[in-house]
Design brief:
This protein is an alpha+beta fold and about 210 residues long. About 20% of the residues lie in helices and about 30% in strands.
Length: about 210
Amino acid sequence: MCVIVYKPDGVSSNWTDLFSCWAANGDGAGVMWSDGSFIRFRKGFMSWKAMNDWYDDNILGNELMYRVAFHFRIKTHDPISPNLCHPFVIREEQLLMMHNGVLGISCVDQSESDTSTYAKMLSRFEPEFIMNEMIDFIESTTVGNKLLFMDQQGNVRITKYDLWHKSGDILYSNQNWKFQVFNDSPTHKWMRNNSRKSYRCTALDN
């Protein structure tokens, strides 16, 4: 299961948690952000180091100004591909979305995913209509899924908000990423998820 992480402006990211999200969902990552006057995104990070280095160079210095959403992907039936990382564009430079769950949409094009197909379906509607009038309908028709929308003014709409998990001011769409570091080295982290009785070893330079 993927995970979405949302941090509002005025708050610093928790990079220990973000690393754990990557360790549990390492099939690609993406970021979208806004300062209230624009929306930008970068996706297709296929290694922790690539995302970490890019964020340090481009966002970290002004992080407190931005509302930022991260998405860490673990594939279901769709292929592992930088193009299938989130977010997906609904309207260029106006509205983006991230998704956690399985929508059950049949994809005619095998290079697409359920989320990319859903974003194209929503692109027929005006961003303002989606954000203000359609969000309740979206929530009621995507049972078992969690979605996060961000527009060019930095407005955020979250479905199934009550089922998200909050740590301080940061929101997480689930807690399946929670691993306990039990063996650390300069090159690798061994991590254990007690609730899922699973282990992961993640190379820090990948």
